[in-house]
Amino acid sequence: MKASSPSIFTVGLAESDRDLEGVLALQRASRAPTQDGFVTVEHTLDLLRAMHAVAPSVVARDPEGLVVGYAIVMTREARALLPILEPMFALIERLPPAALGATPNARWYVMGQIAVAPAYRGGGVFDALYAEHRARYRERFDLVITEVATRNVRSMRAHQRVGFRTVTTYRDATDEWALIAWDWR
Predict the structure, then answer these.
(1) DSSP letter at 56?
(2) What would the DSSP string read from start to end of 143-184?
């Protein structure tokens, strides 16, 4: 795929500790809120390895193989690994399936976090990460769910553009969140 800025990138599943370390480096760089968005949850290499063992995350790499974007897969089996996200999982399970646009037996997972390196923003990486999610996980899952801070306007718009719709909003001690879902059926 050719990005409009700055170069070519490829998208695929995370394959090595180098990829996971690249995710962590980009995550650290994306923690401070800016007009381009931000991420809130911090992971460790061991945590990413454990999540990757259940379902590998999707990464975008530059021509040298460095991670310039990522979208973390977090299945229900991995939820105990990040207790901070338990309220989100509990909320999802309390909602009637119809609220998610799903059937009672719908198979879903949480997209645990997405980020794109500043030099690659606006170049199609975000959309390509989600297209790869769908291509890789559509046979295994019916929908993907995530939450975005409502003040993260750029992320909200980008998620809506690729197909997510807001299911509900809620406030916790840190922020107001939109729980959003993308039904692949």
Answers:
(1) P
(2) EEEEEEETT-HHHHHHHHHHT-EEEEEEE-SS-EEEEEEEE-
Collapsed DSSP state (helix, strand, coil) of residue 60 = strand
pLDDT tens readout for residues 68-77: 999 999 999 9
Query: What residue spans define the domains of the chain?
Result: 10-183
Digit-coded pLDDT (tens) for 125-154: 999 999 999 999 999 999 999 999 898 888
Specify the pTM.
0.88
11 Cβ partners below 8 Å, 6+ apart? 1, 58, 59, 60, 61, 69, 125, 128, 129, 131, 132
Q: Please report the pLDDT score of residue 38 as a whole number.
A: 47
| Exposure string for 32-63, b = 16+ CB within 10 A, e = fewer | eeeeebbbbeebeeebbeebbeebbbbbbbbe
Q: What is the spatial order of strands in the sheet that 10-13 belongs to? A: 10-13, 58-61, 67-74, 108-116, 143-149, 176-183, 165-171
- Superfamily holding 10-183: Gcn5-related N-acetyltransferase (GNAT) (3.40.630.30)
Give the pair of three-digit tokens for residue 58.
């999707």
Cα–Cα nearest to 138, from 86, 182, 74: 182
